[in-house]
Amino acid sequence: MAQNSNFKSPKRLDALEGGAAGQSSGSVAGGKARGGSLDGVDFERRSFLGKAVVGVGAVVAASTLYPVVNYIIPPPEKEVKDKDEIVVGKASEVPADSGKIYQFNKDKVIVVNNGGTLTAVSAVCTHLGCLVQWKSDEKNIYCACHGARYTDNGQIISGPQPLPLAPYSVRVDGDDLIISKA
Ligand code: FES
């Protein structure tokens, strides 16, 4: 009801009959005429601004997506070259009649001190890959998984293993215990 009375108010009727009547050509007060000339529009500037916005958007998108993509697809690992010789520890770590396993490049190597004589062989059993140990009472390298036995230089004594243990070289330099490829 309030709308109807407002619509028929004298002020609104005056506006419709007077001022608005003269503007019935489709133009908007204070604006540009419809279908008027576009001479004043700087299309080159608009085009540049549009490209700048797209460029900034691309940079923001790239900086956001890069860590995500990097996380999902990690870069290839740098190839680490194997060393021919590594100081793995101190000679005192392998006293007489003991054995100790060291990391040598990607391999596990057991250093055995059999009555003062040092030997080094792969610590990975050739049967199914368990780690071996030195049995000082039997003076042999033993695999607890299925009972394989090897000499201190990796030769087969008994058990299910198909191959001897791979040999390595070991020496002492000062206090250093050094393993190298055989
Ligand atoms: S893994 Fe060593 S004996 Fe089977």
UniProtKB/TrEMBL annotation:
Membrane-spanning segments: 52-73
Classification of source organism: Bacteria, Pseudomonadati, Chlorobiota, Chlorobiia, Chlorobiales
Pfam families attached to this UniProt entry: Rieske
The keyword Metal-binding belongs to this UniProt entry's keyword annotation: yes
GO cellular component term of the entry, any: membrane
Protein name as annotated: Plastoquinol--plastocyanin reductase
GO molecular function: 2 iron, 2 sulfur cluster binding; metal ion binding; oxidoreductase activity
CDD domains, per database record: Rieske
Cofactor section: [2Fe-2S] cluster
EC class of the enzyme, as a word: oxidoreductase
Enzyme Commission number(s) of this protein: 1.10.9.1
InterPro entries, alphabetized: Rieske_2Fe-2S, Rieske_2Fe-2S_sf, Rieske_Fe-S_prot, Rieske_Fe-S_prot_C
This protein's UniProt keywords: 2Fe-2S, Disulfide bond, Iron, Iron-sulfur, Membrane, Metal-binding, Oxidoreductase, Transmembrane, Transmembrane helix
Span list, region Disordered: 1-33
Residue stretches making up the Rieske domain: 85-179
